Amino acid sequence: MLDSIVFYFFAGIAVLSAALMVTRRNAIHSAVFLITTLLSTAGIFLQLRAEFLFIGQIILYVGGIMVLFIFVIMLVRLDVPLPQIRSRARQWVACIVALVVFLEAAFIVWMSQKVPGQGLLVLRAAPAEKLPPNTEDLGKSLFGAYLLPFEIASILLLVAMIGAVVMGKKRTDAP
Asked: I need a surface site. Which of 17, 63, 129, 143 has the fewest CB within 10 A?
């Protein structure tokens, strides 16, 4: 019972903040609502006892990616309006895209009824006490057999970060 309440609490916050993120005109407000959405998703991961995904969500997305988003928002001139194309065709394209997405979702629900045994919604999940410790196994495989690719990826990310700092730095001409 308590698990359901916690899940619906975090899910409600995630859906509400995602809707507010899309509808805000101010880019900073949208970024704050995106942070709220990511934090509530991390809460859902923690409630599902996926500790690694919880910590990864907070460190990578909320901590790292959102800092980059905020820097980009601050560096890009948002006060200069872009020319907007006003046409009737844009409304028709939006309606067609919405119809295609709805038909795809309906097809997935229809096909899920044909899956033997489970269907779309799995009614019974395995209890958390019976699940293997996922963080330990992931750490053992990540720092065991996959140590070299992990280190190569970290060096590539470091080079990309240094490149972003160099590209974002304002150049001044020395006299």
From this structure: 129
Helix (H, G, I), strand (E, B) or coil at 18: helix
Burial level of 57, CB count in 10 A (0-12/13-18/19+)?
buried
CA distance 50 to 105: 27
What CA–CA distance (Å, rounded) separates 114 from 105? 15
Query: How many Å apart are CA 93 and CA 91, to the nearest integer?
Result: 5
Q: Which residue is listed with tokens 């490149």?
A: 163
Which distant-in-sequence residues (6+ apart) come within 8 Å of 21 by Cβ?
30, 33, 34, 36, 37
So what's the pLDDT on residue 122? 54
Q: What's the mean per-residue pLDDT of the chain?
A: 80
User: What's the half-sphere exposure (Cβ side, CA atoms, 13 Å) at 52?
Assistant: 9
Distinct helix (H) and strand (E) counts, the chain: 7, 0
* Residue 129 per-residue DSSP state: G
Q: Is pTM beyond 0.70 here?
A: no
CA distance 152 to 55: 22
